[in-house]
């Protein structure tokens, strides 16, 4: 693996690393495991690998794994996932697909899973578009008022729980049993 010290180099000590954020696309469990296994012999703590979620409109940060927790891998049923439903199954289930959680949403932020066609909040276990609200979100795009209104000033038509009614759609699809877990980006939304 690129980046590992050669035999003629001084030993590498990663035991003090607190966090390495990993995001931008859904995080692959296999890639995460390969990275950790490569650097664990140099003292990298398992809790240092932080699968995260973010996007430019949210000044890059939306959610991450808690400081002293290792990454969480959730196994879901492939057939149900293809039907836009999140159903956890045992890891050894024949239809199991591993998904990496992107942790919890930041303290001053709010995220909800929404049906983009109806602007209605979806219950836990259903896949929809991730909408965000928080002080880290931009207020619009410079010189593009119409596009800014479409992206940054959407109003939820139906909410399940008390929350902010205004949100910014991300075009990212995900689900939220208790954490954010992006599954894909749908630019057609």
Automatic annotation (TrEMBL):
<dbReference type="InterPro" id="IPR000873">
    <property type="entry name" value="AMP-dep_synth/lig_dom"/>
</dbReference>
<dbReference type="GO" id="GO:0070566">
    <property type="term" value="F:adenylyltransferase activity"/>
</dbReference>
<dbReference type="GO" id="GO:0006633">
    <property type="term" value="P:fatty acid biosynthetic process"/>
</dbReference>
<feature type="domain" description="AMP-dependent synthetase/ligase">
    <location>
        <begin position="12"/>
        <end position="142"/>
    </location>
</feature>
<dbReference type="Pfam" id="PF00501">
    <property type="entry name" value="AMP-binding"/>
</dbReference>
<comment type="similarity">
    <text>Belongs to the ATP-dependent AMP-binding enzyme family.</text>
</comment>
<dbReference type="InterPro" id="IPR042099">
    <property type="entry name" value="ANL_N_sf"/>
</dbReference>
<protein>
    <recommendedName>
        <fullName>AMP-dependent synthetase/ligase domain-containing protein</fullName>
    </recommendedName>
</protein>
<dbReference type="GO" id="GO:0005886">
    <property type="term" value="C:plasma membrane"/>
</dbReference>
<feature type="compositionally biased region" description="Polar residues">
    <location>
        <begin position="180"/>
        <end position="189"/>
    </location>
</feature>
<feature type="region of interest" description="Disordered">
    <location>
        <begin position="163"/>
        <end position="189"/>
    </location>
</feature>
């Amino acid at each position: 693996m690129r980046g590992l010290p050669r035999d003629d180099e001084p030993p590498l000590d990663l035991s003090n690393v607190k966090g390495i954020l990993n995001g931008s696309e859904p995080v692959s469990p296999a890639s995460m495991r390969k990275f950790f296994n490569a650097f664990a012999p140099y003292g990298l703590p398992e809790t240092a690998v932080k699968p995260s979620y973010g996007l430019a409109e949210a000044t890059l940060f939306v959610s991450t794994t808690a400081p002293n927790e290792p990454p969480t891998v959730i196994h879901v049923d492939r057939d149900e996932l293809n039907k836009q439903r999140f159903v956890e199954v045992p890891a050894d289930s024949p239809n199991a697909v591993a998904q990496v959680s992107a942790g919890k949403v930041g303290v001053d932020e709010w995220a909800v899973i929404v049906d983009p066609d109806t602007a209605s909040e979806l219950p836990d276990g259903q896949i929809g578009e991730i909408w965000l609200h928080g002080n880290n979100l931009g207020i619009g795009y410079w010189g593009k008022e119409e596009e800014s209104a479409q992206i940054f000033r959407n109003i939820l038509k139906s909410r399940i729980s008390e929350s902010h009614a205004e949100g910014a759609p991300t075009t990212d699809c995900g689900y939220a049993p208790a954490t954010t877990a992006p599954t894909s980006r749908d630019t057609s939304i």
